[in-house]
Structure formats: structure tokens, C-alpha cells
Protein: Elongation factor P
Amino acid sequence: MIEVGDLKKGMFIIYDGEIYRVLEASKHFMGRGSGLIRTKLKNVKTGLVREVNFPSGDKVPEAELSFRKAQYLYRDGDHYYFMTLDDYEQYALSEEEIGDAKYYLVENMEVDLVFHEGTPIGIELPTTVELTVVETEPSFKGDTVSGGGKPAVLETGLKITVPYFIEVGDKIKVDTRTGEYVGRA
Structure:
């Protein structure tokens, strides 16, 4: 059991008999009374996000998970296929189980497969990934003076804002937690 005041983004808990990933957790105190812990939880199986308020001091069970290194192989329809690096077993995860991580997956990339009771329930991405720009506006001389950026589409379909000097075909690093441009690869 973990106290709700200790919940942090990325943790997995069991709530209403389902496994949830904590997307946000913040503490709110009201006058003299005890505080509230406001959380945003994402159901690992269904992908639904719900907001739950816990009274300060409550405890929730932490989900017992295991992580195994795996390699992303390919996508076939609505399923993404991974191979564990220790025993070379293949696992398929649905698009709902992958969630927004699909925008960062490139074939042969290494990820952590998340298991609960021997069943894969999701993946953990590395902090940054290298992706290729496939579509962006051309840059013009003097664009860098104004700062800001321009929209770009990456090889996985992810749309982000990049600096003006980035061109089509450039490899860039993207933060998987925020979806923002980090730098050139």
C-alpha cells in the first residue's frame, strides 16, 4: 500500500480493481481541514482517463509490475509487436495499450515491456528518441532572428514545433514525456 500523498507521475496503482497509471498528482489544502490529493489516472487496459480526488492520508495498493527489455519489431493493423531480448519471445500489444507511445516507436528500437502477472500491459519509452523530419516548411534567411519555430511532421506521424533551421530529412531528438524538440541527433 502506498499513501496517496506519495503518488507521482508514472506510478501504477490499483483502483476499483483495475490497474491505473498516474498521469498527474497534486496536493490541495483547504483552510483548517485535511487536504485533498487530486489525481488524473489512466486505465491501462481501456485507456480511459479519469480524475479522482483522494482524502489526504488514504492508501491505495501499488500494482506489482515487472519490466523486461524488448525490441519493437513492427506494426500490423491495430497491433504492435515486440520481442523480449532475454528469451526472444514475441508479444503483441493493441493500439489502446500502447497509447501515445505509438508516435515515438521506430522499428528495432529498444523499450521496456511492462508486465502484470505475466501479461504485457504496456511499454516504457526511453526519455528521448531520434526521429526523422518528413515534412516541414522551407526556412528562409533571417528566420532565426524572430525565435519561435515552425510545424513539422515526423516519420511516425507526430506533429511538433521545431526551430527554423530544421529541414526535411534531418534527424532530431524528441522528448517522449513532453513531445518537444530537444536537439539535432
About this structure: The chain has three domains: 2-60, 66-124, 128-184. Residues 66-124 form a domain with the OB fold (Dihydrolipoamide Acetyltransferase, E2P) fold (CATH 2.40.50.140). The longest helix spans residues 95-98.
